[in-house]
């Protein structure tokens, strides 16, 4: 049996392939009657309508699937981002590895809305989670794992206080952050 996330990946792959073929990502082009031939250059109207309907159906189905997953708390959403946990507690490197194996990456909030979406999962499991943020080369300077600078922060009062010895960052159940050693067991929360 395929897992829920496998079905989503397959549906997304299908949507992505179709939309790239139409050079119209991510918007679903209107039917030929509305946008004329410009929306799907070179395709006969009948085929354009067929593709439009197929994309609209896929989009509708994906939205419903997301609604189901959100309803039972399997995913939380913030804009285009989706967050989910496998419920496992492990150290930083292993959490990152399991997120990447699942086709995502470790979660890190880029704004307040994403912070809340991740916090909702942390609260649900009542477990602190590692974020995809680490200390850079300059001691005390934290950045996203991909090297980008932090434009949003939500440190707990008096944090970070590790003086270079706490190179990872955990999220508390109130959504605030603490710099922390990387070898603790923390909830794995991934971004997809
Ligand atoms: C512990 C660790 C530190 C944290 C303090 C806060 O010592 O979790 O990272 O800063 O508690 O009191
Ligand atoms: Ca700390």
Please describe what this structure looks like.
By secondary structure, this protein is α+β, with helices and mostly antiparallel strands. It folds into two domains: 4-71; 77-191, Mannose-Binding Protein A, Chain A (Roll). Helices cover 39% and strands 20% of the residues. The protein is built from five helices and eight strands; from the N terminus they run H-H-H-E-E-H-E-H-E-E-E-E-E. It has helices at 4-22, 32-35, 45-71, 92-101, 112-125, and strands at residues 76-78, 81-90, 105-106, 129-135, 142-144, 168-171, 177-180, 186-191. It is elongated, with a radius of gyration of 20 Å. The structure holds alpha-D-mannopyranose and calcium ion (CA).
Number of domains: 2
- Secondary structure tally, helices: 5
Strand content: 15-25%
* Rg calc: 20 Å
Structural class computed from helices and strand pairing: alpha+beta
Q: Sheet bearing the most strands, described?
A: 4 strands, antiparallel
Average pLDDT figure: 87
How far apart are the termini?
21 Å
Describe the secondary structure blueprint for this structure.
Elements: H1 4-22, H2 32-35, H3 45-71, E1 76-78, E2 81-90, H4 92-101, E3 105-106, H5 112-125, E4 129-135, E5 142-144, E6 168-171, E7 177-180, E8 186-191
Antiparallel strand pairs: 1-2, 2-8, 3-8, 4-5, 4-6, 6-7
This protein binds alpha-D-mannopyranose and calcium ion.
Compact overview of the structure:
The protein is an alpha+beta fold and about 190 residues long.
């Amino acid at each position: 049996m395929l897992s829920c996330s496998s079905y989503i990946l397959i549906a997304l792959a299908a949507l992505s392939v179709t939309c790239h073929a139409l050079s119209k990502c991510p918007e679903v082009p209107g039917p030929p009657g509305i946008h004329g031939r410009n929306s799907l250059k070179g395709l006969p109207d009948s085929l354009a309508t067929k593709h439009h309907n197929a994309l609209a159906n896929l989009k509708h189905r994906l939205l419903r699937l997301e609604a189901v997953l959100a309803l039972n708390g399997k995913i939380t959403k913030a804009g285009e981002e989706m967050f989910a946990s496998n419920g496992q507690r492990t150290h930083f490197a292993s959490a990152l590895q399991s997120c990447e194996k699942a086709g995502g990456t470790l979660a890190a909030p880029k704004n307040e809305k994403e912070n809340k979406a991740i916090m909702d999962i942390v609260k649900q499991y009542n477990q602190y989670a590692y974020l995809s943020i680490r200390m850079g080369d300059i001691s005390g300077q934290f950045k996203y794992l991909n090297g980008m600078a932090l434009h949003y922060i939500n440190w707990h009062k008096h944090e970070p206080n590790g003086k270079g010895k706490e190179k990872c960052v955990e999220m508390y159940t109130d959504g605030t952050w603490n710099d922390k050693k990387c070898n603790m067991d923390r909830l794995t929360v991934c971004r997809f």
